[in-house]
Amino acid sequence: MDLQLDFGAQLPQHLVPGYNKVVSLLTQTVLEWPKGAAMLTRENKGIYAIRIWDKSKAEKLLGKSITYYYEGEKSKKNVIVTIQEKPKFHKYLNPKYVTLVGFHRFPLDQIKNEQIDKLLENFGQIIIPTEDVYADVFLTGKKKVRIDLNLGKNIPRDLFYEFSNDAGKKFSFTLRCYYKDQPYLCKTCKDRHIGDCPELEQEKIENEKAKKLKETKTKTVMIGDSNFRCINERGVMASVTAITGGKIGHVVNQIKFENLSAIQNVVLSSGQNCIHDIEEVEKGLWEKRTQTEILALESQASNLMSQGKNVFILSVPPTPVATSTKQRKEARNFINTNLTEAVQRLVKEMETGMAAFIEENEGNYNPTTDFTDERHLAPIAIERIISKLDEVFPDNQKLKDTSLKQRTTCLPYRGCYGTFPVGCSFCTGLKHNEGTCRVKQGTDKRNRSSDSQDMATGSNKK
Predict the structure, then answer these.
(1) φ and ψ at 425, to 5 degrees?
(2) Do 81 and 100 have their domain in common?
(3) How far is CA 338 from CA 311, 313, 344, 448, in A?
(4) Could you tell me if 146 and 96 are in contact, meaning their C-beta atoms sit under 8 angstroms apart?
(5) DSSP string, 221-243
(6) I want to staple 286 with a disulfide (CB 3.0 to 4.6 A). Which of 9, 281, 291, 310 is the partner?
(7) How far apart are CA 422 and CA 272, in angstroms?
(8) Do both 154 and 258 map to the same domain?
(9) Does residue 90 lie in a domain region?
């Protein structure tokens, strides 16, 4: 039977009696103290543990007390410490702290913590019930729970669940769950494993090698919409930014946040996402809005060329989404024509730097191989564009380099910096969003991207 004397409940560390003193107190003042068959050990926090193998003798000691004069026998300062049964700590089989995310979204914001506990009981014993995770006074949309996975089952990372809210309406969704040493089906290597993906770890190592190799040699930045998403920075001598859903004005905005001090070539690709609402927006307004974005791009290119940099503007490719209707074909032609004219003006007016409009013959595009879907170029088409750029780049600044061992393309967003469009999603202007856009509301017919205030330069990448 395990007993204890808890001096720490009454005295600070430096006043707790030493081992020999406790031996004297027990053997000389506790008449029922058994001779032999007992063990005394000192533990943390001023506690002495007593183990008695004869349970009947141990039970006689329960409740007995000793008086300890902690400033010496002549002092009146003392504490009375009682022999107690040592608390029994439950030993869990496989305790885990589980984090659940996504409760800021509907319908997960309708679920109660008790309902989650009921679900997780299928995997083990709840130690600490589900509770919300806070950042100071703010909810984070996360929840946490401690559970003993003592049933031999792991919680899936994507846990399907059905529940009913207070109104009796049924919902079904997938809970995203995480805990240490959780096995899961990896989307990268398509294998089930615990911890970090070996392929991703290897990629990190290769990324660092490529980064060091490119630190002094890279002279090119590529900024564009999601058609750049499958360019692999580990296989090209360039820094690549892919703006999902980015229009021409969003590319202009992104340039302001790039560190181009050591860059010689700037490759820009956009315009396809300007076409998506051509059927909904009045033609005159659409053309004026798009033309304003193109003029803003021309102004930004002029600024780059004044610093001695080369600017390469890619045409809008004939993706299915850009050529599916007569209106969309005309819109694409409008953008490419105005981009061509902008580059021609730059070449004529600027005395420093260089500008070029890179356009591939539409006959080179094969619908069965060159498009991943209706919106995106396939890797084979991107590799052709990279080769076309290398035709005009200086010999010591080619995108393809023999020192880089990887392919120029890879899976979407696995080899480049993917980001969201900076600015209003309708007019691309800064300092407001689509909900407060005066251009969309018709109260202001000017596109704001051209007269937005300059922001401090500096890369926010990687």
Answers:
(1) -75, -15
(2) no
(3) 16, 12, 10, 19
(4) yes
(5) EEEEEGGGTTB-TTTSSSEEEEE
(6) 281
(7) 17
(8) no
(9) no
Question: What is the residue type of 344?
Answer: Q
CB 285 within 8 A of CB 330: no
* pTM: predicted TM-score of the whole model, two decimal places: 0.70
In sequence order, which ranges of 62-197 are alpha helices (DSSP H)? 113-120
**Do 31 and 121 share a domain, yes or no?**
no
C-alpha dist (Å) from residue 440 to 227, 416, 447: 26, 32, 10
Position 296: which residue type? A
CB atoms near residue 358 (< 10 Å): 17
Residue that is last in its domain, among 85, 107, 134: 85
Same domain membership, residue 74 and residue 145: no
Is 456 contained in some domain?
Answer: no
Residue 44 identity: N
Is-contact 422 263, C-beta < 8 A? no
> What is the pLDDT tens value at each position of the chain, 462 positions in all?
899 999 999 999 999 999 999 998 888 888 777 776 788 899 988 999 999 888 888 888 899 999 998 887 777 889 999 999 988 777 888 999 999 999 988 888 888 899 999 999 999 999 999 999 999 889 999 999 999 999 989 999 998 888 887 778 888 888 899 999 998 888 778 888 888 888 888 878 887 877 777 877 889 999 999 999 999 998 999 999 999 999 999 999 999 999 999 999 999 999 999 999 999 989 999 999 999 999 999 999 999 999 999 999 999 999 999 999 999 999 999 999 999 999 999 999 998 999 999 998 888 899 999 999 999 999 999 999 999 999 999 888 999 988 888 899 999 998 899 999 999 999 999 999 988 988 887 644 444 444 433 333 333 454
Which letter does DSSP use for residue 409 in this model?
B
Do 153 and 249 reside in the same domain of the chain?
no
Task: Kindly state whether residues 322 and 398 are assigned to the same domain.
Answer: yes
In a domain, 460, yes or no: no
How far is 195 from 258, CA to CA, in rounded Å?
34
Domain carrying residue 265 = 217-450
The number of domains in the chain is 3
Q: Give me the residue label for tokens 């499958």.
A: 230
For residue 175, tell me if it sits in a domain: yes
**Rounded Cα–Cα distance for residues 169 and 33 (Å):** 67
Given 85, 113, 143, the domain boundary residue is: 85
At residue 185, the 3 state secondary structure works out as strand
Give the DSSP H/E element, type plus range, for residue 148.
strand 138-148
How far, in Å, CA of 49 to CA of 85, rounded? 10
Amino acid (one-letter) located at 163:
F
d(CA 51, CA 38): 6
